[in-house]
Amino acid sequence: YAFKAPAVSAKSRFEFLSREAFLLVNNVVLLVSTLTVLAGTIFPLITDALNLGKYSVGPPYFNAVFVPLMAFLIAFMGVGPLLNWKSTRTQQIKRHLLSVLLGSLISVGIIAISVLARVDTWSVLAILFAFWLICSVAVDLRAKLKNAPTLQRGLRRLTASYYGMLLGHIGFAVCVLGVCIVSQFNIENDLRMAPGESAQIEDYRFVFEGTRKLTGPNFTGEEGIVQVYQDDALIATLHPQKRRYSGRGMVMTEAAIDPGLWRDLYVAMGEPLNDGAWAMRLHYKPLVRFIWLGALIMAFGGLMAIIDKRYKLKLSLRQVATDEVGRVA
Q: Is 231 a residue whose pLDDT tops 80?
């Protein structure tokens, strides 16, 4: 594109308060975010290859540079769908943004009061950002359906690429919710558990029933039996494993997982202790599945945009023109 830029004769003018400008800002932020992740990933490899020492780039780096970028991106993503192409009147965007802000604040209040066990600044901000995106696409959808004779006809009139945009923004909001909630409300307990002992995490009670011998095709080991109760009702029986592989004698830990849409429960075995007890690690991860669910929704939104008939029409017209030129020649 850079080499061909001087040959582009068409010029497009747009104001800052326009969809083009906000798409440009979003693309720049996404590019900077990509370079940030790339730099943090390959920096230790480069320093090690050049014998400059061994460095480790971990969560503090990514939290310091990536989280502010994503917050900035979400702010612009929430405004972008509400803008017109080329230019937007200030009064129009103010009215839409007020509706989005009110919807976001009401949603945060409802969730904080009825769902969250404890309220902190980061979880409130994450929920606010997520519903900022969701409410913005809802306000935009309402504006597009305002003049439709019926709701069904209005929805049918919208293009596949528009639905792709809706799904992309909603998927990103779901992903944001999952990342922040699991990072703020994740619980990890490392403790000693003997057969018959129990541990409580949130509403779940983990009861260690003991271990049994385990024999596989190329390993031997121990398999734990952990029963999980919620309100005195048995909801899962987990079997974490400690494997010893033959040959190199490697010892591997196989965690047991009880998956769910709203939370995942993990149990992992550490080292054996005296009197049949084991070092155990218990995890409670709320909304961790939302991270993957949001990614799937975004991917489906991309597929929806790709199948838009307008792009196929342009391609077919171009092919007809090419065939006509060839016929004349």
A: yes
Q: How far apart are CA 74 and CA 26, in angstroms?
A: 9
Report CA torsion sign: 73, 74, 76, 80.
Answer: positive
Which two structure tokens, joined as six digits, stand for 82?
């509400």
Using an 8 Å Cβ cutoff, are 198 and 207 in contact? yes
d(CA 153, CA 126): 35
Query: In whole angstroms, what separates CA 262 from the centre of its chain?
Result: 14
* CA–CA distances in Å: residue 137 to residues 97, 168, 196: 11, 10, 52
Give CA separation, 50 vs 54, 70, 258, 278, in Å. Answer: 10, 32, 44, 43
Alpha carbon distance 200, 193 (integer Å): 12
Q: Is the pLDDT of residue 77 over 80?
A: yes
Q: How far, in Å, CA of 314 to CA of 325, rounded?
A: 17
- Is the pLDDT confidence value at 237 over 90? yes
pLDDT at position 315 over 60? no
CA distances to 142, 155, 304 from 148, in Å: 10, 9, 22
Q: 101 Cβ partners below 8 Å, 6+ apart?
A: 132
Average pLDDT estimate for 212-241: 90
3-class SS at 210? strand
Whole-prediction pTM: 0.78
Mean pLDDT computed over 59-87:
84
Q: CB–CB of 262/284 below 8 Å?
A: no
Q: Count other Cβ atoms within 10 Å, centred on residue 268.
A: 21
- Cα–Cα distance between 230 and 234 in angstroms, integer? 7
